[in-house]
């Protein structure tokens, strides 16, 4: 039960370890991306040149991209400015709605999508509820609020339960 909904299919140090070849090899046609702590830190308003290049490499390989964030519309709109991708703000992850809307907008089946994020209880759980695949990256720079520390402690327990070192 836990395993089915909370464990990612793969773990990476950062997004740059996730290559178009790797994704195409798994039959992934679209990636649904978390923004904060996955692509950039909370205080980075725009994609860094490295992030932009990574996104372009995926798109050039024919992999579609979308952004689903629980952050505000102001933040997400600014981050996605100039891109033609689907984006969703205040998405209520792990609720499935935004993930389903993204897949519909991209014209792909849930099973052809991989969600890439830094949190088990939002990104991975949301993906798995719809039958999408999920990759977790190490958070770039964690917030030190009590809620976040609680979530991270919960994640540590999940990883420990399944003997995953991350
Ligand atoms: Mg995040």
Identify the notable features of this structure and list them briefly.
single chain, 166 residues, alpha/beta, Rossmann fold, six-stranded parallel β-sheet, 40% helix, 15% strand, globular, binds magnesium ion
Structural summary, described in words:
- The protein has 166 residues and is an alpha/beta fold.
- The protein is built from seven helices and six strands; from the N terminus they run αβαβαβαβαβαβα.
- The chain has helices at 2-6, 20-25, 49-60, 73-80, 97-106, 120-129, 146-161, and strands at 10-12, 30-33, 64-68, 86-88, 113-117, 133-137.
- A six-stranded parallel β-sheet has the order 1-6-5-2-3-4, sandwiched between helices.
- Helix 6 links the parallel strand 5 and strand 6 (133-137).
- It is globular.
- The two termini are 21 Å apart.
- The protein binds magnesium ion (MG).
- Magnesium ion binds at residues 34, 36-38, 117-119.
Order of strands across the main sheet: 1-6-5-2-3-4
Beta-strand percentage?
Answer: 15-25%
Largest sheet: 6 strands, parallel
**How far apart are the first and last residues' alpha carbons, in Å?**
21 Å
Shape: globular
Please write the string of helix (H) and strand (E) elements. Answer: HEHEHEHEHEHEH
- Contiguous uncertain segments of 5+ residues: none
């Amino acid at each position: 039960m836990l395993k089915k909904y909370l464990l990612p299919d793969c773990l990476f140090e950062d997004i740059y370890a996730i290559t178009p070849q790797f994704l195409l090899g798994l039959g992934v046609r679209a990636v649904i991306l978390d923004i904060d702590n996955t692509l950039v830190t909370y205080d980075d308003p725009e994609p860094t040149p490295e992030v932009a290049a990574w996104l372009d490499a995926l798109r050039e390989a024919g992999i579609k991209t979308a952004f689903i964030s629980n952050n505000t519309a102001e933040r997400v709109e600014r981050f996605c400015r100039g891109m033609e991708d689907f984006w969703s703000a205040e998405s209520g992850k792990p609720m499935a709605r935004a993930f389903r809307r993204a897949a519909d907008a991209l014209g792909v089946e849930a099973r052809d999508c991989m969600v890439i994020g830094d949190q088990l209880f939002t990104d991975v759980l949301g993906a798995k509820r719809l039958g999408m695949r999920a990759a977790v990256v190490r958070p770039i720079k964690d917030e030190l609020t009590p809620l976040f520390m609680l979530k991270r402690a919960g994640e540590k327990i999940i990883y420990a339960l399944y003997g995953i070192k991350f």
